[in-house]
Amino acid sequence: VKQAENGELDMSALSGLTVGFSQCDNASAWRIAETESIQETAKENDVTLVYADAGGDIAKQASDIGDMIAQGVDYIIAAPQEEDGLQSVLQEAMAEGIGVILVDRGVNGEAGTDYTTAIMSDFIWEAEQVAKKVIEATEGKGNVVILQGTPGATSATERNEGFLNTIKDTDLKVIVEQPAGFLMAEAQSVMENILQAQGDEVDVVFCHNDDMALGALTAIKAAGYKPGEDILVCGIDGASAALEAVKSGEMLCTASCSPYFGPITFETIAKLKNNEQVDEKLIIEDTLFDIDNADPALGY
Ligand code: GYE
């Protein structure tokens, strides 16, 4: 969803507002696409955006949000690094009457009390689709490596859960589960070590995002294995480079996870400003991409 499709919505309520956006980090193409989407939509609607990048540090993110409260912003958009660590500052915002919109990851807490609403993908669904594709491709047999995202990020926890629940009655066996911070370079080096120790045993690598899948792919090729034949690599996000790899058969699949939060987030803020009812959770719909429908033009 690159553009707001709902022409009927009264976005004029946004004009003149000051909105904080606390980004957990801005170190990947996915996060940059998300930041730009929010910045562009703010600009289009005459919103002053107060932006802060926490650089992957939950304590910095809490203090960034505290600064936004002190500056008197009207609303706060937060992309939480981890599910714990922001609760007290978000409650402070709520107590000040500042609406809090969580985007792309959740926090431990309740809508209405700890934050206003949450907008994100269904991470369990995404991982289930990937797992089903893996079961189909392997006939439910083989050894799986999982490269995990940031520990404590709901997108990592729930993707792990969705994948493991789906394979639990098969002969797919998870031989290694290791975090690699959702980052390409880190995943490459983690994968190098795994391949060195037990490369011949690895049949499938499930990565919690495409950046890690692309890092793993580099390590797999460098170690002399053929991705798509010796080892099946899967990711999530729908990065153009990953869609290209799926199309060429180097990756088995990826599930989309849209970074384009600007339109839906500001539509939600406009509704809140107009005192309209807003759901506690807005789920963004995703698609599974395999060799039959992967198209790099659909990525970011
Ligand atoms: O998949 C990943 C990013 O929380 C949905 O975080 C987000 C995830 C996304 O760093 O690439």
Ordered list of secondary-structure elements with their pairings:
Blueprint (H helix, E strand, L loop, with lengths): L17 E6 L5 H16 L3 E6 L4 H14 L3 E4 L8 H9 L3 E5 L13 E5 L1 H16 L2 E8 L5 H14 L3 E9 L4 H15 L5 E4 L2 H13 L9 E6 L2 H8 L5 E4 L5 H12 L7 E4 L3 E2 L11
Parallel strand pairs: 1-2, 1-3, 3-4, 4-5, 5-11, 6-7, 6-8, 8-9, 9-10
Antiparallel strand pairs: 10-12
Helix pairs in contact: 1-9, 2-3, 4-5, 6-7
Bound molecules: beta-D-fucofuranose (GYE).
Give a structural overview.
Helix content is 39%, strand content 21%. The chain has helices at residues 29-44, 58-71, 87-95, 123-138, 154-167, 184-198, 210-222, 240-247, 262-273, and strands at residues 18-23, 48-53, 75-78, 99-103, 117-121, 141-148, 171-179, 204-207, 232-237, 253-256, 281-284, 288-289. Strand 1, helix 1 and strand 2 form a beta-alpha-beta unit. The longest helix has 16 residues, at 29-44. The model has no long low-confidence stretch (mean pLDDT 96). Bound molecules: beta-D-fucofuranose (GYE). It comes from Miniphocaeibacter halophilus. This is ABC transporter substrate-binding protein.
